[in-house]
Structures are given as structure tokens and as C-alpha cells.
Write the C-alpha cells for this entry.
Amino acid sequence: MKVFAIAKRIIKQFLKDKRSLAMIFVAPIVLLFLFSFILKQDDSKPTMALVNAPQIFENELKNFANIVDVDESKIKDQLKDKEIDGAVVFKNEKIIVQFEGTDNARTSAVITSIQDTIKEITPSQFELVMDPIYGSDEMETFDSIGPIFIGFFSFLFVFILAGISFVRERLTTTLERLLVTPVKRWEIVFGYIIGFGFFALIQSLIITIFSINVLDMYNVGDAWEVCVVNILLSLTALTLGMLLSAYANNEFQVVQFIPVIVVPQILFSGIFSTAFLPDWFKVFGSILPLTYGAEALRAIMIKGQSLTDIGLQLAILLGFSICFIVINIFALKKQRSI
């Protein structure tokens, strides 16, 4: 029958396409493993420091948190370095809960442990006071992870734009015609970067302005510095999209890269906290550009830091871009020799 003949052709076609087979069978397993590993940390206990706490409170808190001995003068430094997740200071009939403030998962774990403890001992004579180092005690979840979304959407759509557009340049033989001209490979690469980068620049500005001015996203830094980080992150996505498109035969294959390249980055960018994960697992996040872009955006918008304070993250993003550009130039050399 013709129906089975068509089905047989499709099956043979897919069996020859190893990339599609990997997307169907391997990618879901890998992503499920990453999601399960990250989300299973919810039951982990936060690490807390106590100052002037009644013995009954300390004994009960041990059921919900790991208590460490920290000098009161060093608490803020250890919170900033994320060596501890929170601290509880009893002062003037108040329970002052201190936490870093930029990691929503850490903050939630600290507050939940305190609230559960209070429910058990009901110390009505104490007033609960939140004292974050960064941000505000009125910050909502969206304010905490909002900077990550700014970076993520910039990265995602520029990656798709660059990948699909570059593949289209090849399919329409525009790139092939350029390669047979005396134009140097680096000139072609930088020409495409500037051309696509123009739209990436506009997109970055629109996303930043909309997020801060329309959505009223929490921001204590300079908006232009947010734009700089966003533009640099978009440049990384642009060069990566161009590079991977060199190994795609059509637009569909570019889209196939999204589960492998983009989804893992959102897992390690800070929307899902890796605070309670083992160090070996966090290594995955250290090789992903969005990890550093998200850190830089949160540092500016929530901590109020400047570009000089996040120089390391900016240098790493620039390093990613330069690396992708160099590989792009060599990839064009291979295509020119074909």
C-alpha cells in the first residue's frame, strides 16, 4: 500500500539522520536527568548562623536547618560569599532574619525554616523582621529572577535569528558566492556579525527598557549598564548561532540545537537554584555563557554593582564570543575548500 510506502520512506530517512535520532531519544533523557537532579534539592536544609538565640529556638531550628557557629561581625561577609544561607539575630524582642537576597531558592529555604520553627515554639513576644543584604524585603519572585529572563530571552531569540538567517544565506547560495570572491573569511564573519548585530542591539535595548520602565522590574543599577551586559550576551548568542548553523543543513536542524544548547543554560542560570547541589554538578554551569550573563545582570539590577565590579563575567562573555568568532572563521575555511 502507498501509505506504508510513505511511512517506510520516512522511517529510512530518519534512521539516516543521526542528529534527529539523538534529539528524539537522547536529548529528553539528558534534560530529564538535569531537571530531576536540580529540582530534588528542594528538601535540602539551609545553612544558618544564630546570634543570641534562646536554646529552645536553636533546638527546634536544628530540625529545619544546619546550624553553624559564625562570629556576628563576619555574618554579612559569609552571606555575600554564600558560605551560609542565612542568619537569625535576636535583638530587642525581634527576630532579625538576614539573607543575601539575590537567590530566591536560598531565601525561600531560610524563611521557611524560620517560619516552621516559630510555628513549633510560638514565641509571641518576638517580632519577625526580614533584613536582606541586597534587594528589598518586599521583592517578589519575579524581581529576583527577572534579570535572568532579560538575559535568557535576548540570548534565545538572537541565537535563533543568527542560526536560521545564516543557514538561509547558505541555502540561497549567497554565502557560497561570497566565498568565491577575494573577500577574506574574517571580513565575511565580521560583516555578518555587524549586520545581525544591528538587530540584536535594538532587541537588547527594547527588552531592557520594557522590563525596567513598563514591567517596573526591580533595579537599583544604571539601565545603560544593564544594556551593555545584555548586548554582550546577545553577541555571544549571535556568534554561537552562526557557528552551529555551519553544521546545519536547514532551518529545522538549527531549531534542533535549542534543547541541547539553550534549555540547559536556563537550568543553570539561576531560575532554578543550584545552591544545594554538589560542586561537581555545578561544573556544567561554568561552561555556559548565560550563567555569567545572568550573574552580571543580577549584580547590577539587584546588588547595584557597576561594570567594573562584574569585570570577570564580562571578560568571560567576551572570551566566549571571541572563541566562537575564531572557530567561525575556520569553519568558513572548510566550506571554501569544498
The chain has two domains: 45-132, 142-337. The chain has a mean pLDDT of 82.
